């Protein structure tokens, strides 16, 4: 396997048939993988004694009584309980959780930010997380937070898990490695990763500096959206999601494990690497997905559909059809609609729309919404194409046109999103954003005909 040298010497499973570079294909499959031959018990989960002297341990991602339970059986050198006590509270002041409503911050509005710049300070996955918005309530497991990460340093003998949330990671710059209990995910721009709630991992910089976006999902897990009339093919195809094969470290070294739990952070000291799962099987596992595999489906004669057709993943809320979070992708595609104003229409939406630019230009905002930048159009607040996009699209000669070199995304939630003090005061907020609509003029003069 072609991987950069790793100081932690992970022992990884040989690449089984049907995998590419240490990953197994499929979304939510029941996987099985072992890094040493015979480490995975066959035909049962809890043998009286496991091979190699391993401990069996279950990680449950859904309630025991769920209709479709999600859980993974791990066979590990030491049970997790060896590294989960005597926690000391620590402060990560930039990583906020909902509810986080700052009385001095106004969230009602349309907002846009330039990319949050890197600083001289060395930052890890934990110290470099900057919360931009929060929604819902982490304690009742509803809602989400959006973050920007700025990472320049690897975690060394430091590990982390979030009991609060599943993380959807959307890199924009640099390459990261997620060395997890269940295997290794290498991640670069145009790919995304899902790190499940409760999974222990360490984040290393493969190529820095690294910047990206994170959607922290407090609620029910992300799943593939129902396809309805679209049918079995296109959009995100399940086989393009890749789950890592087993990889473990047998490493005794003073280490820390930090836990995010009900919005607070605590650390414990342990004497070994917790990435010691030699074999595992189950359907609760991290995965990555290459966004270039997303096959967009759209209007092929006229009009502009709702952006739900571009949903990559959806995290349901209790209300059918109304997501806790939709992850929506605006990527390269052909525009062929006849007699149509092609960019997104002007609109107000009960859902709150947090957008990020991964690369290129977004059709509704040719200027100002730049790679690494973000925008927020909060619940029921009007927005749409800026003046430049409006004039261009309403006067264009319409033929088949490729929207090329473009990749933006949206975290859309049913809950209002509240800006953090960081987003309002420290991040590069564009004070003049709403001016992009100011010069839209009245064209109506009482006479019929198109103006
Ligand atoms: O506001 C936006 O730019 C996102 C968006 C895109 C689209 O094609 C339709 C609706 C919508 O909210
Ligand atoms: Fe919108």
TrEMBL record:
Q: Which UniProt keywords apply?
A: Dioxygenase, Iron, Metal-binding, Oxidoreductase
At the top level, the lineage of the source is: Bacteria
What is the native source organism of this protein? Ruegeria sediminis
Q: Name one GO molecular function term.
A: homogentisate 1,2-dioxygenase activity
One Pfam annotation reads HgmA_C
The keyword Oxidoreductase belongs to this UniProt entry's keyword annotation = yes
Domain Homogentisate 1,2-dioxygenase C-terminal, chain residue ranges per copy: 293-444
Q: Top-level EC class, please?
A: oxidoreductase
Which PANTHER family does the record cross-reference, listed alphabetically? HOMOGENTISATE 1,2-DIOXYGENASE
Q: Which family does it belong to?
A: Belongs to the homogentisate dioxygenase family.
Q: Domain Homogentisate 1,2-dioxygenase N-terminal spans what residues?
A: 23-291
> NCBIfam families in the record, alphabetically?
hmgA
* Region annotation (Disordered) ranges: 1-21
Name the cofactor(s) required for activity, per the record: Fe cation
Q: Where is the composition biased (Polar residues)?
A: 1-18
Name of the featured protein: Homogentisate 1,2-dioxygenase
Tell me its EC number(s), please: 1.13.11.5
